[in-house]
Amino acid sequence: QVDLVESGGGSVQAGGSMRLSCAASGNVDSRDIMGWFRQAPGKKREGVAAIGRDGDTYRESLKGRFLISRDDAKSTLYLQMNSLKTEDTAMYYCVVGEARGQGTQVTVSS
After folding, report:
1. Would you list the DSSP string of the chain?
2. CA gap 31, 33 in Å, rounded
3. How far is CA 11 from the centre of its chain?
């Protein structure tokens, strides 16, 4: 079993930055692919980024603004978000395998 707890969300003005964290506990290690997805009200869930031993991948439209990283010693996943836009407003979720956290809300205002 894997438990995931996201933090770091909140409100920010467009153009600002925010870093999300996801603390993992349980049966998770450096071999697992970890990732983020987001879902805005009335919209489909969409993948944001993922990171594994072979590297990281991003949603094409987010490349250059978002950066995913992990600290396996702390069992923590991060998402650095820069130059935020109003369309980045969504609930952000951390995922590892079938496990998903409760999410953290990110709101970007103009």
Report:
1. -EEEEEE--EEEETT--EEEEEEEEES--TTS-EEEEEE-TTS--EEEEEEETTEEEE-GGGBTTEEEEEETTTTEEEEEE-S--GGG-EEEEEEETTEE---EEEEEE-
2. 7
3. 16
Closest by Cα among 88, 89, 92, 96 to 104: 92
Residue 2 CA from chain centroid, whole number: 16
Copy the structure tokens of residue 98: 């079938």
Q: What is the pLDDT of residues 43-74, one digit of tens each?
A: 999 999 999 999 999 999 999 999 999 999 99
pLDDT reported for residue 106: 98
Alpha carbon distance 30, 33 (integer Å): 8
Beta carbons of 28 and 83 less than 8 angstroms apart: no
Among 93, 89, 60, residue whose Cα is nearest residue 79 = 93
